[in-house]
């Protein structure tokens, strides 16, 4: 159920903030940009999820096979990168408004991006343990392909 809402709810949330800013008379170009970017991300993710049967009750098509060469979990990496970029947009706004280092470049909202990163890493490790137990060849895949950050594949060590 979470996968089915994951691509939709963030767009709804960010538009609530963007519309509220307009209603209270404080429209913000950065907030509008964030709303547009989240909506584009949501549309892409929702379309791909639906196209592959994600809303039909079938198992996610990616779980049965491995398709990824540079990162075992590229969606996880780029999703985290997006939220860190949003944190960066927020800090840029705070610093330009005169907030300085503490409260501007470094503020309490970093907890959201950091906790999301911890959630993804924990979830990824858990998912990987399941995959490794179900598919013996997954261990070789783990040795050659980066877990999150897209990197060129590592060479396999020769077997003796």
Low-confidence stretches: none
- Alpha-carbon distance between the two ends: 45 Å
β-strand amount: under 5%
By helix and strand content, what is the structural category?
Answer: mainly alpha
Main sheet specs = none
Q: SSE string, helix = H, strand = E?
A: HHHHHH
Helix content bin: 55-70%
Radius of gyration: 19 Å
Total beta strand runs: 0
Report the total helices.
6
What does the average pLDDT come to? 85
- Overall shape: globular
Describe the protein's topology.
Blueprint: H1 2-6, H2 9-23, H3 29-51, H4 74-96, H5 110-134, H6 138-144
Helix pairs in contact: 2-3, 4-5
Distinctive features:
160 residues, mainly alpha, 61% helix, 0% strand
Describe this structure in words.
By secondary structure, the protein is mainly α. Helices cover about 60% and strands about 0% of the residues. It contains six helices and no strands.
């Amino acid at each position: 159920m979470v996968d089915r809402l994951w691509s939709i709810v963030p767009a709804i949330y960010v538009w609530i903030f963007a519309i509220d800013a307009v209603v209270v008379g404080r429209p913000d170009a950065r907030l509008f940009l964030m709303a547009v970017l989240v909506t584009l991300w949501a549309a892409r993710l929702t379309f791909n999820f639906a196209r592959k049967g994600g809303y039909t009750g079938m198992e996610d098509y990616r779980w049965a096979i491995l398709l990824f060469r540079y990162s075992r979990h590229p969606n996880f990496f780029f999703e985290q990168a997006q939220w860190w970029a949003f944190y960066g947009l927020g800090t840029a706004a705070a610093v330009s408004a005169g907030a300085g280092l503490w409260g501007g470049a470094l503020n309490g909202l970093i907890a959201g991006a950091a906790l999301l990163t911890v959630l993804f890493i924990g979830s990824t490790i858990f998912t990987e343990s399941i995959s490794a137990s179900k598919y013996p060849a997954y261990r070789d895949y783990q040795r050659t392909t980066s877990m999150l950050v897209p990197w060129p594949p590592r060479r396999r060590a020769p077997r003796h």
